[in-house]
Design a protein that fits this description.
This is Transglutaminase-like cysteine peptidase. The chain is an alpha+beta fold and about 220 residues long. It has seven helices and nine strands, in the order αβααβααβαββββββα. Strand 4 and strand 5 form a beta hairpin. Helix 2 crosses helix 5 and helix 3 runs antiparallel to helix 6.
Length: about 220
């Protein structure tokens, strides 16, 4: 059983020296290309929602970090219905771009995390303070676990992260999420081992999906 102390240390432990191909630190957002791609894929209803997203970004530029994180977290949690990848894409594990998720108004935990990550980076939050964290989430009294992903914000590399999640709508520090056991975390520049001594996921397979979604986001005008 992982203790609370192990849980907190696990969210930030053990950097693996692996560069995983990523968005530039400078903004490369291309709103017109995004709108064009959304129109082609999902029509005017999709464009309307992407315009809501773009309006939120402009409104939040220069806002306090806490307000940015709260509103970005709420935007995707309210606008997007959770469904699993089989139901949406007919695949066991598909990582969607923000355009794909907003166009369908459906996504799973990876999609929420990716969209929040890209949005906060566009708002100027340094990428090295954000990590997508793959966890095992314990469900209900049965303590049954399932794979899950959240987005973590780290004030410093050794700070306890704040977690943005689609299951629990409020942003909470990791110490208040005893239902989560970290496996690994990653961002645009590195991969970190989690608190478990035995890997319960294949990081390289999952990071190949990350590289794939980066390529699609570049094509769609996000990065």
């Amino acid at each position: 059983m992982i203790t609370r102390r192990q849980l907190l240390s696990g969210f930030g432990a053990g950097l693996v020296c692996l560069m995983i191909g990523a968005p530039s630190t400078a903004s490369a957002l291309n709103p017109e290309r995004i709108r064009q791609k959304m129109q082609q894929a999902h029509g005017t209803s999709g464009v309307s929602l992407i315009d809501d997203w773009l309006t939120m970004i402009e409104r939040l530029r220069g806002a306090r970090l806490g307000d940015q994180m709260r509103e970005v977290n709420d935007f995707f949690n309210r606008k997007v219905l959770w469904r699993d990848d089989i139901s949406i894409w007919g695949q066991e594990d598909y990582w969607a771009t923000p355009l794909e998720m907003l166009g369908r108004r459906e996504g799973d935990c990876e999609d929420y995390s990716i969209a929040k990550y890209i949005t906060l980076k566009e708002l100027g939050v340094p990428g090295n303070k954000l990590r997508m964290i793959y966890v095992r989430a314990r469900i209900g009294r049965s303590q049954r676990t399932q794979a899950h992903m959240v987005l973590g914000y780290y004030q410093t590399p050794v700070s306890e992260p704040l977690l943005l999640d689609n299951i629990i709508p409020s942003i909470r520090p990791a110490s208040e999420r005893n239902d989560l056991d970290p496996v690994f975390s990653f961002n645009s520049s590195g991969l970190w081992a989690g608190g478990s001594q035995e890997s319960r996921a294949d990081p390289l397979a999952r990071l190949s999906r990350w590289q794939n979604v980066i390529n699609r986001m570049r094509d769609q005008g996000f990065i």
